[in-house]
Each structure stands twice: as structure tokens, then as C-alpha cells.
Amino acid sequence: ALPSPITYISVLSFLRKIGRIDRLEDTLAELASVSRRIQIKNPSQSGVDIVAFNTYLGAIFDAAAAGRPFLSSCDNESEMLDSNLFNFTNFNNTLDGTTSSEKYLYKGLNLLRGDAARKKFALEGDPDIYSFNSLLTAVAKCAKPGRNLLSITDSCLLTMKKQGIECDTMSYNARIQAAIAANEEDRAIQLIDELLASPKLDADRYTINLALVPFVNSGRKGQMLTLMRDFYEMNAGKNNRIILSAFEAFLNTLVKNDEVELARDVFDAFFLSIPKDRMQLTGIRPNPTTKHFNIMLGGYSRTGEALKAFELFDTMLDIGVALDGFTVTSLMTHPISPEKITSLLVQVESERVILNPAAYRSIIGAYGDAGDAASACWMFLEMGRVCQKRGRGAESWNVLLGALARGCTGDKGSTALDIYGC
Cys staple from 118: which of 123, 168, 203, 372, with CB 3.0 to 4.6 Å? Predict the structure, then answer.
């Protein structure tokens, strides 16, 4: 008898997790063989669950994204692969210009064409939208400047059309991501506009995140903010957790692309009740989290805007948002007096924040930059006490030595270092 779907899908999921495509293929083949024998006696018996096939596809595309060597347990691999799609002859040869990642993508594409998968693995039905989206997502992960893999995408879309499967929002998101990865921003904007114009589809938080940089670069900041507002108001008061998670991604994308000022405008408008561009918001406004503040503080570390960083930190404390080790590390990247460092440490202690070695090292370095070698030594001892072995590695010692070198120069160069009398 054929095992229950939940049983064999669990096995296949484990094989995918450990990257055993060969075992996945063998297991699916065995399931198909059993299913066919059962259907001879009982034609009404369902075939192998489509989720099992999608798990196998996922493993193939995992290998594509990781760039693993092209391997297969199928003896007739060259017969199974459509020569019209492949432009190589030796499946493990990269000298033909086709990478192992592309070979995995083409292999998955061939399985999605027509009834190939249903016949090969005795499936209960043909590949579904999830199957095709898995391929489009893998293409997005493998795309890069100079290699947009558009031929695979176009073949996938053609196959979907022939099988009566329409693109959904996830399909568009994957295609947009692939265009951005290939530095084809105009194509990305075209796809975004197609999605926004569709009466059947809605942009989700992933669409908005992908659209941020292309829209900013093309002078469509107003439309970008409108998309954020619509998303915000759709979820405000009903699903604030999604709002918080989405805006973490939005802020992070803007900061990573050096749009720190725009990220601050978004942060103020949606979390601090400071409207920008006449933006009017409804619904219950969620409070910003530590991570939202940390993203902005990290942005100011990139731009070196110390005044804005400490003003934002004061706001963080005023509205009662907890600080953490990353907060401290970000603030220590700016020029800061020993007195202000110590004041910050008092705040850390009052909130019982547990610092990691990276945060301690940033404080040690800041004391060194401020010319306070004694405090740097005291903080090194404190790190050893709190973090134990994690705080006594070579990296920590190097930071201390650098701090001592910087802290014993200039006006304090002739001052005796008293690490016990501080």
C-alpha cells in the first residue's frame, strides 16, 4: 500500500533539508511504482501527492541557489531533458557556458512542462502555481548582473500560459527580484507597474520592499509612500505585527541603499506621529520596536551623523523602548566623550541590558578614541567577568591594545595609567 502523504512528505522534507536530491528522486520513483501497481487494481486510487513533487522541486532549486555541482540519480537524464531548452551537452561540464545552477533550473523547468511530472512520478495532478513560483523564486536567487536568466523565466511563463495557470503576486515578486538582481531596474519598474495595474492582484509587503529603491531612483517617492500608507492602513489595528515586521524590512532596505534621510522620514511619519508629505494616517498606530530604532541608528553610523543618532536615542528612551547591545554598538561608532560613554553605561545598567562581547569591544574602542585608557581597561575586565571565555579571545585583546595605543597619546601621553584607581 502507498504510505499516507504526511508520512512520505515528512521523509522527503528531511531529504531536502540534507540536500539529498538523489535519494529524493529514488524515493519518488519508488512511490510512483507503488502507486501505479495500486491503480491497476483500483483505478480510483489517488496518485502521489503534488506536495511531494514540490518538495523535490524545492531541493533541486536549493541546489541551484547554492551553486552545487549538477548531479542526478537518473540514468536517462539526457533523454529527460529537452534539447530545445538546454544549450549544453555534458551535464557536469561548465566549459560550455552553462553553470550548474542553470542546469538545475532547466531540469526543474522540464519537469514542469506538459504532463512530464505527472507521468514520471504518477502524481495525482499536474504542477500547480506553487510549483512554478518555486522556479521563478530560484531564478531570482540565481540572477546577477550580466546573467538575467530571462530565457528560463520566459519559458516558465509560456508553460504556465499553456497550462492555464496565471501569475499571482508571488510570481511577480520573484520576477521583480530577478530583474533587480540583474541590475535591470527599468524591467523591474515595468513589472511593478503591471502588478499595480492588475485588477486581480494586490501588492504585498514584499512587492513594496522590492519597489522602494527603483521608485526612489526613478523619482517616484510619492507613489512609494502611498503604497506604504495603503499597506499600513489595511493592517493598522488588525495586524500590527505584520506592520512592524514589514517596516523593519522597508527601513533596512532604504538604509542599506544609503537612503538614510528618506528612511528617517518614513520612520517619523509612521511611528513618531510626524507626518511627511501631508500623509494622513488612520487606525491604531503601533509603537516602534528596538529593532526599528537600531536600523536607524545603524544608518546614522553609516553617515556619521552623531547629533541625529543621539537625538534619536533620546527619543528612544523618552517613549520607553528598550535598548540592547546593538544600540550601544551603533552609538559607540560616533565621537563621544568619556563622560557620555559612562552615562550611557549607567543607562544600560539601570535597564539591566546584557551586553555581548561585540558591544563591550565597541565601548572599549570608544574609550580609547576618547583618550581614556583606564576606563578601556576597566571595561575589558568587566567584559571578561560577564562574558567569560567569549570575551577573552584574540579579537578582544586586539581591541584593548588598540584602545591603549590611542588612549595614551597627545596630552595624556605622559600620564601614568591607573587601571585600579578608576
Answer: 123
Q: What is the pLDDT along the chain (422 residues), one digit of tens a residue?
A: 789 999 999 999 999 999 999 999 999 999 999 999 998 888 887 899 999 999 999 999 999 999 999 875 554 444 344 434 444 434 444 445 689 999 999 999 999 998 899 999 999 999 999 999 999 999 999 999 988 899 999 999 999 999 999 999 999 999 999 999 999 999 999 999 999 999 999 999 999 999 999 999 999 999 999 999 999 988 887 888 999 999 999 999 999 999 999 999 999 988 887 655 445 566 567 789 999 999 999 999 999 999 999 999 999 999 999 999 999 999 999 999 999 999 989 988 888 888 999 999 999 999 999 989 899 999 999 999 999 888 888 999 999 999 888 866 545 544 544 544 44
The cell 553609516 sits on which residue?
A: 302
CB-based contact 103:68 (threshold 8 Å): no
Please give the single-letter amino acid code of residue 83.
S
- What is the reported pTM? 0.84
Strands (E), 342-414: none
With beta carbons less than 8 A apart as the criterion, state whether 192 and 217 touch.
Answer: no
DSSP string, 236-255: TTT-HHHHHHHHHHHHHHHH
Kindly give the interhelix angle for 100-112 and 150-162, rounded to the nearest 10 degrees.
10
Burial of 169 from C-beta contacts in 10 A (0-12 / 13-18 / 19+): middle
SS3 label, residue 147: strand
Would you give the end-to-end CA distance of the chain in angstroms?
A: 77
Choose among 176, 128, 132: nearest CA to 155. 132
Count of helices and strands (H, E) across the chain: 21, 0
352 backbone dihedrals φ, ψ, rounded to 5°: 55, 45
Residue type, 301: S
Amino acid at 411: D
Tell me the C-alpha distance between 123 and 71, whole Å.
23
Query: Any idea what DSSP says for residue 278?
Result: T
CA angle in degrees (0–180, nearest 5) for 321-351-373:
110
